[in-house]
Amino acid sequence: MTLWRFDGLDGYPIGMINWFAVHPTSMGNWYTLITGDNKGYAAYEFEREQGTKHLMDRPRAFVAAFAQSNEGDVSPNICGPRYPCTQHKDFERMVTVANAQLDCARKLYAEALTAQPIAGNVSFAHQYVDYCSIQLEKRWQLNAECPTSTSSGCIGVSMVSGTEFDGRGVPAIKEGIRWGTYPKVTTLPELQSLQKEKPIIFPTARYGMSPKVLPLQLFSIADCLHIAAVPFEMTTMAGRRLRASLMTSLKELLPGVKELHEPVIAGLSNAYCGYMTTREEYAVQRYEGASTHFGPNQLVATCQQFEILAKTMYLSSKSDHKARSVNVGLNPPSIKGMGVLDYNIPVIHDGVASGSSFGAVVLGSDVLKEYGWGSTVKVCFHAAHPKNNLRTQSTFLEVQRWMPDCDRNEGGIWVIHADDGDTNTTFRWTRQGTFRSMVTVEWHISETTPKGKYRIKVNGDCKHFLWRTVTPYSGVSSSFTVVGPGAPA
């Protein structure tokens, strides 16, 4: 893990960002709720420890980013392949992977406080590259059996097989299918020759189903910290080779910089177009190799382009014959008017059961009077479609706690204890018939929850098809008491 700590000029902590390579796919595709997975959970916990509360206006809110790196072949499923019979353990396993990142981040963040501060100029180089036709210079033609350029984007047969650890795709297709495994039949002989071991299942770039013009970007802070932003999921070894290549270039360009740190790879940045493997990994044609769109030379072509970006950044202002200019005239194609579909179908009408109202508790589903630590509060409300208002920077639910206050006529005030962004709450929407909806709110009570009186509040917006207006509503459950250990679960 690489971590950067950011403090203001007055020494006040602003935030931190770290890069660690692991897929945020701990929760399987069976899980239909919104989740930040292991990285989101780690960021939430780190920010909470620093006092950040997202629903409260605070000019100095601390921001923690658990960023992605070259995670292409790094699975979070450390307990083995995922099966339907073990999916109930996904959340527990997700927390395990998140806590591993969180513990390391805490340690590095504390150590950074005593490290030598870095200050200096920020510079960058950016270029759009047509990845379908990158011509390799002589020194980058490392594989004699390969062509001297990249290829038009394609996906291989093993791509549709999925992965053994993180979820199968088409069950009948296995990973590792190479060109020549089956009879050599193709309708794209020239393209197939460029893709070498990958048996092409579909030429995605040719039909505009994957981008071919992609952005590469290099950042520099004080000439000693560098970020290489790539639009791919790079494997572990592919990332190592790119960092080593870029580090060699930077050492040649910056001989006077003593504290030159190893570059950081920021994966899936600015755009996305599949994976990137080493030549050896590509030849095996597992899922990652079959998802490397531009052929066996994709990695060395990327190393070549980052060398050009580094030279442009540091030599373009000098009268050095080694300096090169970057062709910035190449832009990605516009997708306006190209039949891009909007799948966000608007809500026509929200209805509610006769004799009830939006926000009312469903009969027979109200809360108990008492709950103990480790138990789960569950309550259902008559509701509308949540798509009417996504409540950005707000919340669909509130766990409210009663705070006594002698200065108020009511004797106290309800304050927010938890919301839909907390990891111990869930908000589930279900359709009831044609127009009616119901939401189920759950709150798991941890052992750190203060004892006292609580209630659950739901927020939403309903739409009537005659007036086409969206009207906000809210509703609350009965109050209940958290009494600590020993209460009903």
UniProtKB/TrEMBL annotation:
Q: Name one GO molecular function term.
A: N-acylsphingosine amidohydrolase activity
Entry annotation: catalytic residues: 75 (nucleophile)
The UniProt similarity line reads:
Belongs to the neutral ceramidase family.
Pfam families attached to this UniProt entry? Ceramidase_alk (PF04734), Ceramidse_alk_C (PF17048)
Q: What does the record say about how the cofactor binds?
A: Binds 1 zinc ion per subunit.
Q: What is the lineage of its organism?
A: Eukaryota, Sar, Stramenopiles, Oomycota, Peronosporomycetes
Where Zn(2+) binds, per the record, is at 23, 233, 275
Q: Which GO terms describe its cellular component?
A: extracellular region; membrane
Q: Where is the Neutral/alkaline non-lysosomal ceramidase C-terminal domain?
A: 321-482
Identify the cofactor(s). Answer: Zn(2+)
| Keywords from the UniProt entry | Hydrolase, Lipid metabolism, Metal-binding, Sphingolipid metabolism, Zinc
Cited InterPro entries: Ceramidase_alk, NCDase_C_sf, NEUT/ALK_ceramidase_C, NEUT/ALK_ceramidase_N
Every copy of the Neutral/alkaline non-lysosomal ceramidase N-terminal domain together lies at 1-302
Q: Name one GO biological process term.
A: long-chain fatty acid biosynthetic process
Q: What protein am I looking at?
A: Neutral ceramidase
Enzyme Commission number(s): 3.5.1.23
Organism, by scientific name, is: Phytophthora lilii
**What reactions does this protein catalyze?**
an N-acylsphing-4-enine + H2O = sphing-4-enine + a fatty acid
Q: Does the keyword Zinc apply?
A: yes
